[in-house]
Structures are given as structure tokens and as C-alpha cells.
């Protein structure tokens, strides 16, 4: 019995930051494929329905959208370290529950960022290794069907799986952010295949994904690469880097979340 209790305590400790009622959309078919592409970005994507991805947040700097991120729980946000590399909270604000940023529709929640915790091995050993950050909110989120946490990833590769990317990123390289939240679906590459277009640049803290004409782009950084596991979205990766946007030869590269579960447990306290 003592062994069981000890093991149970370890499991609870590792998963304490993740909410069990997670990753659910209020729509029955979130991330569905569509036949039209009105504007084109997220590259090759579509406008989402309001709060279709309730874990998605906009990270603002002095009132302007700069990056994406995901809700871990009511007090913490996951994003990319390169979005907040200085570690400063000055001007940082999280906007949760948004759809069209210029036209609030009710469920939005704004919170200043109280603390930025960048991974201590960000850029070690490679330029974008461990590109992950935790943001502690000054005012906790009220969770609902419009603002909800994402699920923890499983310890699998997800190779070949179809995953959903989303964000307010630009419609082409260097363009401004979109007003409406957009998404598309891409497939996960093996890290070995990703080494081809990015020789010497990929490690186990990264995951690659692409589909013809589809990608994340500037200002999607920190946002989700999520797998729909029977109606519950798991956070597989965070938008990190890549060459251009939707180049046929180069997939998007994301910060792989599964190797960071222990780091999240130790820091999101």
C-alpha cells in the first residue's frame, strides 16, 4: 500500500498543472477541413468559429498582438521563449477568449503578466532548442466553454498524425496580424525527415509539421500545434521557427512540449 501511495503522489505531482477537463471545444467538429480559403493565413487556412479553440490566447505587448500561446490552467500560459526572450513583463498582457480582436464579443479576459519563466536552456545546444516559456497571470482566468485549458501531450512522437495549428499570424511573410483567429491542419514529420531541409538544426526539443500550402507565419509564434484525441486537444508543440511561410521544401518547426513536462511541473507553481 505504501508503494501505491508513493506512486500515486508522483503521478499527481507531475500532472498537477494540467486540468483533467481539458482540450474540449463547444463545437462537435473542431478543426474541420473547409473547401474555401477567404484570406489565406494561418497560411492555407480558414477563419475559426468564435472560441472554437478555447485554449488559444493572444499575447499582447503594449496593446498590440505579438504572439500566441495556450492556456495551461487558470494561472499559467504556455508560449514560446523567443516571444518573451528578455524576461520582462513590462507591457505584457494575455488576451483569452478572443476571436475578432478588434470587436470583443463578451467572453474575453485580459490579464497582465506577473512573471515570465523562460527555459534555462533556451538556445542550448541549438539556436531554438527549448523554445518554451511559462507566463504567470496577475489575475486568474475564469474557465468556461470559451476559455479552457489544453490537455497535456502524451509521450509519443505523433509522427504522421494530422494536427491543428491556429493563430492571428500574418497572411504572408512580413504582413500584419489578422483580426480574426484562423487555423489549418498539417501533418507531423519525423525529426529525421526534418533534418533534410534543416541540417544540423533539429533536436529532440523540436517537432516539425507541414502540408502543401499550409503553415504558421509571423505572429503565430508561441501558438498551438494541437492533436485532437477523440475530442480533447493535446498540446504537441508551440510555433517556434522555420524558413519562410509554407515553402514546399521547408516545414514549420515547433517546440515539442512532451520533453518539457517535468520542467513545467517544477516551474508552474
TrEMBL record:
Alphabetized SUPFAM superfamilies for the sequence: Trypsin-like serine proteases
One GO cellular component term: extracellular region
Gene Ontology annotations of biological process type: protein maturation; proteolysis
SMART domains, A to Z: Tryp_SPc
Gene Ontology molecular-function annotations: serine-type endopeptidase activity
Cleavable signal peptide: 1-16
Keywords, ordered alphabetically: Disulfide bond, Secreted, Signal
CDD domains named in the record: Tryp_SPc
Keyword Disulfide bond set for record: yes
Every Peptidase S1 domain range: 42-269
InterPro entries, alphabetized: Peptidase_S1_PA, Peptidase_S1_PA_chymotrypsin, Peptidase_S1A, Trypsin_dom, TRYPSIN_HIS
Keyword Signal: yes
Subcellular location: Secreted
Name recorded for this polypeptide: DgyrCDS14145
